[in-house]
Amino acid sequence: MRSSDDTQFALITGTSSGLGYEMAQLLLVEGYTVIGVSRRGTTLDHPNFIDILCDIRDEAAVEEMYELIAGHTDALHVIVLNAGIFEMSPLVETSTKEFTDHLSTNVVGAFHVLKHASDFLVEENTHIITVSSIAAKKGLSNISAYSASKFALNGMIESVREEWEHLGVRFSTLMPGAILTKLWDDENEELPRDQMLSVSDFMHVFQMVVTSPSQMQFPEMTFLHKKGMLK
Fold first, then answer.
1. DSSP letters along 58-100, please?
2. Which class in CATH covers the domain with range 9-223?
3. What is the model's pLDDT at position 3?
4. Cα Rg for the chain, rounded, in angstroms?
5. Cα 224 to chain center, whole Å?
6. What is d(CA 52, CA 39) in angstroms, rounded to the nearest whole number?
7. In percent, how much of the chain has pLDDT > 70?
8. Do 177 and 196 meet the contact criterion of CB atoms below 8 Å apart?
9. Collapsing DSSP states into helix, strand and coil, what is residue 105?
């Protein structure tokens, strides 16, 4: 069943858990019909939530994803590029597979989503929100693969912003410091958790961005814990 013209649709990648799950919940509260995309699905249960299994690293899978979306709507008002992986290791201990996995998920996956989104963009309306990282501004030790992927992601977004300027599409790129999620469960226990943002800190910023006036965008929005970056 396709939507009525006044329905607002949001697409979020990486909704199986963590920030993606939380952002999906918030957008549902804000009145959006939310299309959640992930490799393993989610437990989120809501009448206005559409769960799609998709590995965004696979371009053919992304094309199939958009075919499913077309059965519901031809307009995406919000696109949140959130799916990503994060692993820590010194450069000399980082395998080539680990390095390329970061690029495949964090950059190539986002590339596929944007490349095939063009038919769903609403001129002067669609807001593309990218969840990047402070690691896209400053290379930090032991995260060379992650940092390289986020630098590349930001560069791609800047380029697409220029290409689609004539469409009036908004681009907001969020670059938070470390956020205390389950991603850190298997990492160095000595890392200072009290210097990390909480999920609610991140959601405070996300809600402000997604509910901002239609003439506003946030091309590079950096926000950190008051104690600064992890050391």
1. SHHHHHHHHHHHHTT-S-BSEEEE-------B-GGG--HHHHH
2. alpha beta
3. 47
4. 17
5. 18
6. 8
7. 91
8. yes
9. helix
